[in-house]
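Much of our argument rests on the idea that a fold can be written as discrete symbols. Part of our work consisted of pairing the sequence of a single chain with a tokenised description of its backbone. We regard such an encoding as a compact summary of how the chain folds. The amino acid sequence and the backbone structure tokens for this protein are reproduced below.
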Amino acid sequence: MKSQKIAVVYKSKYGTTKQYAEWIAEALEAPLFESSKIKSSQLEDYDVVIYGGGLYAGGINGIKLVSKATCRKLVVFTVGLENIETTDFSRFLTKAFTQEQLATIKAFHLRGAMSYKKLSLIHKGMMAVVKKEAEKKPIAERTNDDVLMLETYGKEVDFMDKGTIAPIVEYIGSL
């Protein structure tokens, strides 16, 4: 890997994004920062900033830190339960970044985990709404994510896989 100053920054509510950020920082031998412990102006000191945030209510957790910052090279990874093969993640990115920013950002999406018993009241409520919406759909029109939601509602779900950080690590190595 070329000698670049790299920072891994994350915002995690339930711990899955933090775990991925730790694995990435370890693999790249880069410092790790929780988003509340670093200012956007400090990100300018790094050649590459890797930002990770969970997907919540159509947005990326804590993304304003990097969307308003001046980063030489920004890599974003999101963490959620959505199927990476069948989900269009562009809606999350276009909500957070301008078209000019999107032209320079590399994004990755990783599957996370969720324990319903650990969810906040607000998130439990949001999940109940998503479940009801999935139930309303005719069976033939349900997406894979709808089916997954209905099968796992109220249970623990864990799709975390350390191996899925490899494309991020490889991409950073190619810079």
In short: The beta strands are 6-11, 32-34, 48-56, 59-60, 74-80, 106-111, 113-115, 156-158. Residues 114-158 form one domain.
